[in-house]
Design a protein that fits this description.
Chains A, B, C: Pathway: Bacterial outer membrane biogenesis; LPS lipid A biosynthesis. Chains A, B, C: GO terms for molecular function: UDP-3-O-[(3R)-3-hydroxyacyl]-glucosamine N-acyltransferase activity. Chains A, B, C: Catalyzes the N-acylation of UDP-3-O-acylglucosamine using 3-hydroxyacyl-ACP as the acyl donor. Is involved in the biosynthesis of lipid A, a phosphorylated glycolipid that anchors the lipopolysaccharide to the outer membrane of the cell. Chains A, B, C: It catalyses: a UDP-3-O-[(3R)-3-hydroxyacyl]-alpha-D-glucosamine + a (3R)-hydroxyacyl-[ACP] = a UDP-2-N,3-O-bis[(3R)-3-hydroxyacyl]-alpha-D-glucosamine + holo-[ACP] + H(+). Chains A, B, C: This is UDP-3-O-acylglucosamine N-acyltransferase. Three copies of one chain form a homotrimer. Chain A is α/β, with parallel strands linked by helices. Chain A has two domains: 90 residues, Udp-n-acetylmuramoylalanyl-d-glutamate--2,6- Diaminopimelate Ligase, Chain: A, domain 1 (3-Layer(aba) Sandwich), CATH 3.40.1390.10; 173 residues, UDP N-Acetylglucosamine Acyltransferase, domain 1 (3 Solenoid), CATH 2.160.10.10. Helix content of chain A is 13%, strand content 27%. Chain A contains five helices and 39 strands. In chain A, strands 8-11-14-17-20-25-28-30-33-36-38-39 form a twelve-stranded mixed sheet, with helices on one face. The relative contact order of chain A is 0.06. Chains in contact: A-B, A-C, B-C.
Chain lengths: 343, 343, 343
Amino acid sequence: MAADPRFFPAGSALTLAEAATLAGGELRGGDAALRITGVGPLQAAGAAEVSFLDNRRYLPQALDSQAAAIVIAPELLARLPEGRVAIVTKQPYLGFGRIARALHPVPSARPGIHPTAVIDPTARIGAGSEIGPFVVIEADAEIGPGCIIGPHAVIGAGVVLGEGCRIGAHASLSHTIAGRGVVLHPGARTGQEGFGFAVTPEGRFETMPQLGRVILEDAVEVGANACVDRGSQTDTVLGAGTRLDNLVQIGHNVRTGKGCVLVAQVGLAGSTHLGHGVQMGGQSGTAGHLEIGDRAQIAAQSGVMSDVGVSEVVGGSPAWPMRETLRAFATLRRLAKPAGRPG
Amino acid sequence: MAADPRFFPAGSALTLAEAATLAGGELRGGDAALRITGVGPLQAAGAAEVSFLDNRRYLPQALDSQAAAIVIAPELLARLPEGRVAIVTKQPYLGFGRIARALHPVPSARPGIHPTAVIDPTARIGAGSEIGPFVVIEADAEIGPGCIIGPHAVIGAGVVLGEGCRIGAHASLSHTIAGRGVVLHPGARTGQEGFGFAVTPEGRFETMPQLGRVILEDAVEVGANACVDRGSQTDTVLGAGTRLDNLVQIGHNVRTGKGCVLVAQVGLAGSTHLGHGVQMGGQSGTAGHLEIGDRAQIAAQSGVMSDVGVSEVVGGSPAWPMRETLRAFATLRRLAKPAGRPG
Amino acid sequence: MAADPRFFPAGSALTLAEAATLAGGELRGGDAALRITGVGPLQAAGAAEVSFLDNRRYLPQALDSQAAAIVIAPELLARLPEGRVAIVTKQPYLGFGRIARALHPVPSARPGIHPTAVIDPTARIGAGSEIGPFVVIEADAEIGPGCIIGPHAVIGAGVVLGEGCRIGAHASLSHTIAGRGVVLHPGARTGQEGFGFAVTPEGRFETMPQLGRVILEDAVEVGANACVDRGSQTDTVLGAGTRLDNLVQIGHNVRTGKGCVLVAQVGLAGSTHLGHGVQMGGQSGTAGHLEIGDRAQIAAQSGVMSDVGVSEVVGGSPAWPMRETLRAFATLRRLAKPAGRPG
């Protein structure tokens, strides 16, 4: 199955030799000059397409595949029959992605400002940027060169976007400083007021002024309809390369290190700090004011109530070291077995 | 309490006889020619309104109700006093809904294109469609006849909508093919990039091109601010009649069968497949690459980590067969009782 | 660290004496006429800024702080060294907030209607309101005086907003009656159709007409991308002063009392009623048709399956009285200890 040309216009074709080079691999067999025009999964790729295999569970599909070549790791190569054309590389998933990207490049900015956009005269728009219909750019905002600002996006007063940012439809940014290559998917929200208030003697809530910002370092991505509140007194900071999936919630004053990965519907309460390379599974959350060490892993749906050490793996709600949580649930299951039934 | 006429303009009145016919039921007692103008809950319905009862817990309210008639199942009828006017049908909730719908029809499209809409000249708009203010319709998109596209909605390049779709305010669609009667509520997002990336040897993340689409079969509904990512290589597919509540997250390559129901804040990780008629309670989630059988039921807040069989009922996080989960929690509660306190 | 002047224009300065009065406190030491221009956290506040301390854990930072004065409770005052300038008040957090607010007032409405706004001729706009670019206000809507309607907001037909409401960018309201001082943050949705349908004998879903409204009492706040569905037959009601954090889901017919606090990603299923002052931690949820008593507290990630009494504290999924849940998890952890390892 080729990509639907209504959505993915065909780029230039590649030869198999070029594809192998892009993948950082070596071509085994096949015609180095064969032209490939697309990529596809093993069971659907056609004779002008490249596929990949990085899990031996899918070997049967590989054996049947019509793909022009299969990107594969050296240790799996022996499993393919003699005649099978392959591109051998230590990182087949990455290599395959690079071939796919060459065939279907990210659309680049179509420089220009849509006539319906409302742009404050004090705002600065970098060269080569594309500003879509109904975009609003408020006073003193700065848009770097080569940015794509999607339809209806709202860039608040004073917001800064570095070079090559992509802002999806209906996204809104206020009180935000973003580096290069930052991506906001549709409906993402950054910089709105955090959830902070004091209680008066009469029992009413008074909003605490939220006087910080959101700092999005280079290459940060924020998923669709995800929310990143600005800091209350300090800043909310997402470290370089950090990726938030859809519907993630980031409370005020949160800081993450570089390269964190937060899967969909994760929630971080205010003032929690994540180290570098922390990974959180879907629907997990943390209490506020915690320290989560570098490379910690937090399982899906976990509820983290206390600090987590470097490289620790935790799970459950409340979250314990993963091994303990697994043992606890195994124990519970055993204890709950109806009497007289074999194990 | 009649529906607020500021929001629900009165339609034509119905006679009790007409109401009974619509409900697929029989009128017991009352004046068949009596005109009813609205519906309401038992305790609030007035003398020109119809109410319904499908739970014996609410019998006391039924006895006191001023409603012109009560839609009721045969097995509850005997509980009503002799003189009480009733519409007797095996499906009182459905029947009541049909009466309500006849009195308050779904607003139909007011054909026309708002002058502020930005529509690419290559896009096709079906006859009788209503295109609201500030709508953006990009190149080669196709809007079927009789669609309602709400204010600020963005219909991306190449997107296809079948007949009679309703797209809420601020919704965005890209890379999406929708059938007939598809509904997106406000702020819903379909077709944005899925959450997929490879890691380079230097530890950076590289986005994997997301080359699939979103297929929304006939009568699919997507809740407010819910997100449906497009496939990475294959498509993300929601089967006919499937309904997503608000803030639901659907990862790339997910497929559901017909008539699935996903309550608010559910999350499905990538490449998981649901059979027909699967029901998932609020805030539940599944890991990726799972197979969930037809008519499986997944309790609220469950975390599904492995395949679920046809008609299985599971709950807990991690999710086990519901009976085991209930027993486990009962056991745990018993074990945790402080010593010396009676059961 | 002063607040970034790109985002927080400096207001008028205050003298220390004025600050103390605003905080409802007394100045200890220092020059009553000293002018302060901002606020900041203990470790970052400069010599013209005020900070606060309400947790003895941060005493070391207080000792080192450069702040002009520290807002502090009487019982902590003795911990500060003799010469330290302080503003002493029983409610340091509230007092500090009032100083911060005086220095950085909430931006007031800049009266006027942006020329791009689309406003139905039957809608009424109160004096002094600010209507942003691309706002849509539909037929018969009423906007109170002094409201700020952010860019792209959609105010549906018949919607009523009281005096001084603030509606964020991309928010949408339909079928909603709001009191004074109601705040919707960006992307919030109120009044859309609830999740209700009947099943036909053929197994299809038929939407139940959703004929209620959303009532937002005075000073209610709805977080970014949060959703409040309208009632099906009765109304969905949020009591005065209730605050929803981001991405919260409120099902149809829910009612809350005054001053409830729902942290991010909470979900309330349909027809559940909360008393006054109920607090729910992040990612917690309730089943439908429950009664939650005044001042009940529901821990983060809890799943409430049955009614909760006045002032009860519950946690876990399913939620039990917090003490039982804590004991159960402690018991489980003990039982799961590997044999032979000391406790």
